[in-house]
């Protein structure tokens, strides 16, 4: 049985994801829902590129527990609705994507934005507003280079704000580089990570295992 107070961090290769983070200048703290590696199978070899951690507001547990408490980790992993409830839940999320290898920002954002656009279109909600938001998203990463250990933070609010910030390490920056107000895009970013076609199955497994323990700590 786990509680936020007893929650452990997660190590993804050389990256440490602490159990709780507090953004600078904020009274809020976020607990680590799960963390895992993102990689690709290249010529029969699995190459890791990024470690992804999903932090959430404490009220996420109370929000999700009534529906999902009692499910086994295996049942949670197999349920797309569980992950969609995290993605669309009425609580803030702070996603940390730290690089294991050097990545070019233009190439990175091209792939991420394409995945987001595909999902938005599949949901039938793609409009001029979403197109504009995706362009803002691409612009934020333009000409950036991410060395190993550097981080992109995605702050996601229930209202649909997507705050982007960049760090040379795992430290949450004082100020956000950009804030994009588009709920569809904000949700699509996390959908590409833990949704139906996830870039990080390991993150999904970590979320299921840790939430199972947290739900068991709910009376």
Automatic annotation (TrEMBL):
It catalyses: a chalcone = a flavanone. Keywords: Flavonoid biosynthesis, Isomerase. One of its GO terms (biological process) is flavonoid biosynthetic process. Pathway: Secondary metabolite biosynthesis; flavonoid biosynthesis. SUPFAM superfamilies: Chalcone isomerase. Residues 12-214 form the Chalcone isomerase domain. InterPro entries: CFI, Chalcone_isomerase, Chalcone_isomerase_3-sand, Chalcone_isomerase_bundle_sf, Chalcone_isomerase_sf. Belongs to the chalcone isomerase family. Catalyzes the intramolecular cyclization of bicyclic chalcones into tricyclic (S)-flavanones. Responsible for the isomerization of 4,2',4',6'-tetrahydroxychalcone (also termed chalcone) into naringenin. This is Chalcone-flavonone isomerase family protein.
């Amino acid at each position: 049985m786990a509680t936020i107070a007893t929650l452990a961090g997660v190590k993804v290769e050389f990256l440490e994801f602490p159990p709780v983070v507090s953004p600078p200048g904020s009274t809020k703290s976020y607990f680590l829902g799960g963390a895992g590696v993102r990689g690709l199978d290249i010529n029969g070899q699995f190459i890791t590129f990024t470690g992804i951690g999903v932090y959430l507001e404490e009220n996420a547990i109370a929000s999700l527990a009534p529906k999902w408490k009692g499910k086994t980790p295996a049942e949670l992993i197999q349920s797309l609705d569980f992950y969609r409830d995290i993605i669309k839940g009425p609580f803030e999320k702070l996603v940390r994507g730290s690089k294991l290898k050097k990545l070019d920002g233009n190439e990175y954002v091209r792939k991420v934005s394409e995945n987001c656009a595909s999902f938005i279109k599949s949901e039938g909600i793609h409009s001029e507003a979403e197109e504009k938001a995706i362009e803002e998203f691409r612009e934020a990463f333009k000409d950036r280079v991410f060395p190993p250990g550097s981080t992109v933070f995605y702050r996601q609010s229930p209202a649909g704000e997507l705050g982007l910030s960049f760090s040379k390490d795992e430290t949450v920056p004082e100020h956000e580089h950009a804030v994009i107000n588009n709920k569809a895009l904000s949700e699509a970013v996390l959908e590409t990570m833990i949704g139906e076609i996830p870039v990080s199955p390991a993150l999904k497994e970590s979320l299921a295992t840790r939430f199972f323990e947290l739900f068991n700590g709910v009376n």
